[in-house]
Amino acid sequence: MEEFEALLNESFEIDTPSEGSVVKGRVLAIEAGQAIIDVGYKMEGRIDLKEFANPGEQADLKPGDVVEVFLRQVENARGEAVISREMARREEAWDRLEKAYADEERVEGAIFGRVKGGFTVDLGGAVAFLPGSQVDVRPVRDAGPLMGLKQPFQILKMDRRRGNIVVSRRAILEESRAEQRAEVIANLHEGQTVDGVVKNITEYGAFVDLGGVDGLLHVTDMAWRRVNHPSEILSIGETVKVQVIKINKETHRISLGMKQLQDDPWDSVEAKFPIESVHTGRVTNITDYGAFVELEPGVEGLVHVSEMSWTKKNVHPGKIVSTSQEVEVMVLEIDSAKRRVSLGLKQTQRNPWEVFAETHPEGTEVEGEVKNITEFGLFVGLPGDIDGMVHLSDLTWEGRGEDVIGDFRKGDVVKAKVTEVDIEKERISLSIKAMDGDPFADAIGGVKRGSIITVEVTKIEDGGIEVTYEGMKSFIRRSDLSRDRAEQRPERFGVGDKIDVRVTNVDSKTRKLGLSIKAREIAEEKEAVEQYGSSDSGASLGDILGAALKGDR
Q: What are the S1 motif domain coordinates in residue numbering (predicted)?
């Protein structure tokens, strides 16, 4: 009996599986979508067939097959064992995945569902999370083709206690791509010409696939001409021929160029566009300091704002020309080393001041609108979109210009005479008062220095007397009233007296005559002495003057 009891207990330990463990079972039958499995010790359990199938596949199971299952409970209320194939697979998968994670090995799985922020992946029994950012090296718009497809993954993180596994497909692709890049780059060298496919276009250039490795084709290396956006000459998927400009072996960055495969237009710029030659170009860009004009594809010149117009100063270039406009320009300077051409727009037109000087010589009458009024005069619009200035001193003959400038308004049409044209300084002087002639010149007529004229006394002052001649006022100082100091008294004259005086000065600028009674007396005495004798011959001054007076009679 003791031996039998020992054998019985031993059989119990061997045959009776413990709950919470993975055991082997044999498929007895398949019915109603379930598999009936014998797990030993006369225990049977049922498992849905879907637990034996991989995502997207049918279960490949038949009676007699031996499978591993997880024993959750030895006996339930119906006397059956509670078993699970899925949990068995999970336990088996976790052991396998932990080993792969420790050894940094790849694992195989299949994407079978979409969740917030990513996808779910079946790793042969264990479910892992695949973040959206780890699906591919570039954002994936449609993950449909990847669903249910067995492929390798890299485990980034796992926690068995919490049941969390995070995997990456991108890490596998990057590693594979890095190997491929290294191989491709090893076969490339600077200066080499290769074919590539445009994969992506940005504002600053395009990425070209050279067969497993991407190179950057910068917008400035696409063409010799100005390219505002790469999409002007490239499209995604297009095959292009490019030259390898630079390779960085450390970062695996490749710089590409298209224009380097074409002739450099700057090699013949000086021959095609000699200095002072005129050409038609197209405005490609406008800035605050000027406008860029394309003379031919790849050759642009700058028209500085100071060279745009003869007359429009301090105006934004955009108000003179517009983008894509065709204009005539003159080549002013070429710097081939710096690849710069200076152009002029105004030089293709005649200097309006030269034209005005030819058509309006000094003394020509002009008519124009008052454009501006300043503290020193008027600006009048003239033919050729230029202005002439009427200085305060040229507004009127009488009075002060400051007093009469207030009579003018912007928009008034005035007539004036051209008095001076300075082409270099771009100045035109006009005179409104000249339209009425010069009353001073008219009044003095042929009067010149030394002439004897008769004037009328209009005012007596302590310092002298005021007189008029043909309406022109003059002043004779006390010291010029007589040769004799005793007679230099203003009060000996009366208003209305007419007296003869000698002209000592004619000042057209101040518009005044210099007059003197004293100078007239000295001149008369000198003339009498010369005609009738001198004191040296024995005649007295009285005798001489007497003879002169007698001769006059």
A: 20-86, 104-170, 191-259, 276-346, 363-433, 450-518
